[in-house]
Automatic annotation (TrEMBL):
Disulfide bond entries: C317-C363
Catalytic machinery residues: D89, D282
Stated name of the protein: Probable aspartic-type endopeptidase OPSB
Domain Peptidase A1: residue ranges: 71-399
Location in the cell: Cell membrane
Organism: Xylaria flabelliformis
Entry keyword annotation includes Zinc-finger: no
Signal peptide: 1-21
Family annotation (InterPro entries): Aspartic_peptidase_A1, Aspartic_peptidase_AS, PEPTIDASE_A1, Peptidase_aspartic_dom_sf, SAP-like
Length: 480
């Protein structure tokens, strides 16, 4: 039996920020309006700890998802424009930003310097909405202040009077761009008010997109580009056909991106079959969390060493070149995740590669036990999938991703229910585990949409994490 000597963090995990615009081809006679940006990678100190904080309450609520997410986009707010880098989070629904006069931002280390902050009184288009903005986290951190509105620009698309929060009190150095269901806005859950139009919804209202739906392409762990398209899909970024599944309601309410996992296989061997398990698609989670028995079977097959104090497992780094895949079936399709996407680099606090007792290099395995918490398909799964989140129709469409796609063919997602080139999965299995059953389960409703267009945000990943590591900028945390 191997034991580990680890004091480590993951260097290979990415988060993205918008870096540059890219050209999107015209579609038909009326060119859709397309927002296009790219991203850079940044290291996350201690992602296992991060994920734990997100998961501690058992279910992932909007307010829990705001502390740290993995994907960054550049945006500007106000007149004249103030630049910010925002965490892009499918798991929450509010946009909020820091203000430089908060106690946090005024700290000597200038923690808000990287992501930027917003001064309301420096903007001629700022308008006050109310004082009930308040997000808090399970670990006791949070942000609170005012809801305001101002001009918001992302990748060249400008929205007037977009509502967002200002964290006059904040313990998170980066603002969050939550793009989930409006019903998860803290104004609804906390203040009991009606939902406002958050970014993806506001794009529809302003006629920038036809439907409240967007596509997320995270791309390869080692890759340099990824993208999000609001109101569009890029048919060059996936293989085969997009297959459309109903989002599973929780207690009758569509509020999270839950779909039904029916089978898991590893290297062609069944790990679990005939499942009806709700799993949450969460780009804000670094790892994938599955039921303990499934995870144990997987660990046995890949010789993973589980560290109960870390809540995660270590594998020989050489597993990355194993040609077996871990396959996830959702009635249909089946998404295959290669070992290279599941084996994550670790670096000790001394900057060394950690090793097992026998000297073999140790890496972090991308799947961990869910215990009594939510089953989550995090980035270690999502990078291998092209995912269309159709909030208007309560549907998810999935296909195997095409890593490092170099061509682009953006199609607008029109009003109504159909997706260009996608197939609705017949007899898809409804979840019986992992959700609180209710009348809304599997019942897709058709939203009212108007106008047309595609807003796209392209993301490029840089080697920022590695740069940070070699520059010694990151504070190394200990896996515990
Ligand atoms: C995103 O913002 C950061 C900080 O201002 C900047 O360094 C980076 O170049 C920006 N990317 C683009 C393409 O604007
Ligand atoms: C803007 O300035 C006014 C007048 O100085 C002040 O009362 C108000 O609190 C400021 N608003 C914000 C959001 O800082
Ligand atoms: C925000 O909500 C938390 C939890 O309900 C509460 O403790 C805190 O006082 C609130 N903050 C503000 C500024 O209202
Ligand atoms: C994608 O590109 C990156 C960076 O060039 C490379 O390391 C990686 O192997 C590529 N992935 C695939 C699947 O080709
Ligand atoms: C890949 O890993 C699986 C599971 O550990 C193992 O059965 C298989 O022999 C490995 N294949 C190669 C080519 O090493
Ligand atoms: C779906 O919603 C419609 C309209 O509210 C209702 O008539 C129907 O019974 C629902 N179906 C299911 C499966 O809940």
């Amino acid at each position: 039996m191997k034991t580990t000597e680890l004091c480590a963090l993951v260097a290979g995990l990415a988060y993205f920020e918008v870096a540059h615009a890219r050209n999107i081809p015209n579609i038909g006679q009326t060119a859709p309006k397309v927002v296009s940006l790219s991203t850079q990678r940044k290291g996350i100190p201690n992602p296992v700890h991060r994920d734990r904080l997100r998961r501690r309450a058992g279910s992932v609520e909007a307010s829990l998802d705001n502390q740290e997410t993995l994907y960054f986009v550049n945006a500007t707010i106000g007149t004249p424009a103030q630049s910010l880098r925002l965490h892009l989070d499918t798991g929450s629904s509010d946009l909020w930003v820091n203000t430089p006069s908060s106690t946090l931002c005024e700290e000597r280390s200038q923690p808000c310097g990287y992501a930027g902050s917003y001064v309301a009184n420096s903007s001629s288009t700022y308008e006050y909405v109310g004082d009930w903005f308040n997000i808090s986290y399970v670990d006791g951190s949070g942000a609170s202040g005012d809801y305001v509105s101002d001009t918001f620009t992302i990748g060249g698309t400008t929205l007037d009077r977009l509502q967002f929060g200002i964290g006059y009190t904040s313990t998170s150095a980066q603002g969050i761009l939550g793009i989930g269901y409006p019903v998860n806005e803290v104004q609804v859950g906390r203040a009991g008010k009606d939902a406002y139009d958050n970014l993806p919804k506001a794009m529809v209202t302003a006629g920038k997109t036809a439907r409240n739906a967007y596509s997320l392409w995270l791309n390869d762990l080692d890759a340099s580009t990824g993208s999000i398209l609001f109101g569009g899909i890029d048919t060059e970024q996936y293989m085969g056909t997009l297959q459309t599944l109903p989002i599973q309601a929780n207690a009758g309410v569509f509020s999270e991106f839950l779909i039904t996992l029916t089978a898991v296989d590893l290297g062609g061997q069944s790990i679990a079959k005939n499942q009806a398990l709700a799993v949450l698609l969460d780009s804000g989670s670094s790892l994938t969390y599955l039921p303990n028995d499934m995870v144990q079977t997987i660990y046995d097959q890949v010789s993973a060493e589980y560290d109960s104090s870390a809540g995660a497992a270590y594998v020989p780094c050489s597993l990355a070149s194993n040609t077996s895949t871990l396959d996830f079936t959702f009635t249909s399709p089946k998404i295959s995740v290669t070992m290279g996407e599941l084996v994550l680099d670790l670096v000790t606090s001394g900057g060394r590669q950690p090793t097992f007792n026998d000297g073999e290099a140790a890496c972090l395995f991308g799947v961990a036990p869910a215990g009594s918490g939510t089953n989550v398909l995090g980035d270690t799964f999502l990078r291998s999938a092209y995912v269309v989140y159709d909030i208007d129709n309560n549907q998810i469409s999935l296909a195997q991703t095409k890593f490092n796609a170099t061509t682009s063919n953006v199609k607008e997602i029109p009003t109504g229910t159909s997706l260009p080139g996608a197939t609705v999965v017949s007899n898809s299995v409804a979840a019986t585990e992992g959700v609180i059953s209710g009348s809304g389960n599997g019942n897709a409703s058709v939203g009212n949409t108007k106008s047309s267009g595609v807003a796209s945000v392209a993301m490029s990943v840089s080697t920022y994490a590695l740069a940070l590591l070699s520059a010694g900028v990151t504070t190394y945390a200990t896996l515990y």
